[in-house]
Amino acid sequence: MTTKRPSLNEFAQHLREIPLFAGLTEPDLRDLAQLSRWREYDAGEVIVLEGEAQPGLYFLEYGWLKVVKTSPSGREQILRFLEPGETFNEIGVFTDRPNPATAIALEPAGIWLIPQQALLRLLQKKPGFAQHILAKMAERMLYLVSLVSDLSLRPVTGRLARLLLEDAVDDVLERPRWYTQAELAARLGTVPDVVQRALRSLENDGFIVVDRHQIRLLDRQALAEIAL
Which residue among 10, 56, 214, 216 is buried most deeply as judged by most CB within 10 Å? Predict the structure, then answer.
């Protein structure tokens, strides 16, 4: 994984690979890259704070982030983990409202900030780009509806089974150092003790194997039935 600042040409190449910017021309992408600003964060630093107005769209070059909602008592609900190559703060940019969640670095991260005004000019100049943004925002809304449905309608073991099926690559879910049971619990909307019991139950049934740095899936069909 690279941990250095890319050149503007490299960043423009990265923008071409982002689904949000599909259809933009090379000059458009170069202009966005030229106007963007580079920032670096340490693990634990807040990039975006819930309730604050933000100046643009963020692109994660390297590192991992979590996007969370926090209750008055301090309990976290993780909305999503962000990996290199993803964007965030779309709602803050395209609806001109304060950001609805907080983004926190889980490890050292390098991030590009694409100014809001540059994006709004593209929306005005290119109706096709505006329609594309609307479609992507609708996809994000569907994801959040699915998250609410999971939290309200599925038991923890079912939510865990679904997460394992969706996030595992070649039947292995890698667990970086920051991916603790506390982080997993916050993503599932519960507490670490409950997650530990759910993991133990699935392991005792022979559906998964839990190691320190990974979870291996042994029976996808059984997990799919639990996730229903």
Answer: 56
